[in-house]
Amino acid sequence: MSSVMASLSHALDLVEGQPRGHAVRACILGMRVARDVGLDAATRSSLFHALLMKDLGCSSNAAKMCFLFEADDRAAKGSVKTVNWRHPIARAIYGMRAVAPGRPLLTRLKRLVRLVAAGDRAGKELIQIRCERGAQIARQFGLDETTAHAIHALDEHYDGGGHPRV
Fold first, then answer.
1. Is residue 162 domain-resident?
2. According to the model, what pLDDT value does residue 114 have?
3. How many domains does the chain have?
């Protein structure tokens, strides 16, 4: 089962705009941390599956990403997790790079203004679609509820600044 999940994780990496092996690397790192903090075997098993399958819902918001960014969703998603969304300058730089690439500057600026107007509501909606669908697919695969819950909480941040239950 782990081999099948690792293979599926490679496909999810591509859909999410990440390099091949992204989820496997995240899983390796997460399992090292789990070992070092002394998690029990059942929790480590749930964590292992959640880390490999963390992006199960990533294709569910692809159409909305394309619409909002007027861009290939994989390109827009590829760097979205590396942006510090609390800093307006970082947000603006990401927006200028990701919104309507290759289009005339005026078109890009208009799309960017619409995206800013949609505000945090649009971002939370994208996350909600992705996380809820990912958890649902995990349950359909027969993964335990702890794994599904972890996938649902994918966009939570260590400091509480993410979106744990959007």
1. no
2. 85
3. 1
